[in-house]
Specification:
single chain; alpha+beta; 7-stranded mixed sheet; 5-stranded antiparallel sheet; binds biotin
Amino acid sequence: MDRAGALRAALAARGGPWLPAVEWPASLVSTNDRLKALARGGAPEWTAVLADVQTGGRGREGRAWASPPGGLYLSVLLRPRFAKAGLLPLAAGVAVAEAATELGVATELKWPNDVLASGRKLAGILAEAASGPAGVEWVVLGLGVNVALEAAAVPPEIAGAVTSLAAEGAEPRPILEVAAAVLARLGVCYDALRSSPGAIVSAWRSRAAPWWGSLVDVRTADGQLQGRLRDVDEEGALVIELEGGENRRLLSGEVQRMRPA
Ligand code: BTN
């Protein structure tokens, strides 16, 4: 059995989700780019694309995602037909955090969907979607998880800001097992999002507990603002209390903790 087949078998043994098609070449420019092409061609939900390395891995806000060997680079196609599809990135963050817990690493979530361990980035999520007259047509969820990166392969400018499952003391596991853990958790979170989206928001909130009440600086497309992190609302927006007490909802942005003066 090839490893795409082994991943499907591992998931079947865990109770799903069933992957109708899996591509797992050694190298791709970006698993998201490949899966978006498949999505446009009508590929079914839960089609998955993985790669051992990416030569043009993409992160949020137009950033690059360094993708050397030792990382999980996984994209999965979903075709949500329910109201709260906009919460999928939060659900994916919860799924990755739960998988990390299963693999022995404690994490926290940072809005909008970074997974941190020991204050450093363990995983990132890039959700790309297309909509039509009937609503969301497809969402490609791209998940990058640092499993066991070699220090020499990590670009020096991000080396201090990233961590990996191995660096956090997890038992060494094949990337296939990490992929199965993440996809199994994602299946459960996706079902929960459909039936009780509030439960996903609550799970997200509790995994982001260390951030509530923190003074933060947020960079948005419209500029920079400071305030205290108060909540993530039922739509997945971040709620910041500005100086003066006014609450502001943010749909996107980059959050940094402010150092005490
Ligand atoms: C972030 O900026 O935090 C999001 C990073 C997402 C990286 C993953 S790796 C698999 C998929 N393919 C990509 O090109 N990007 C995502």
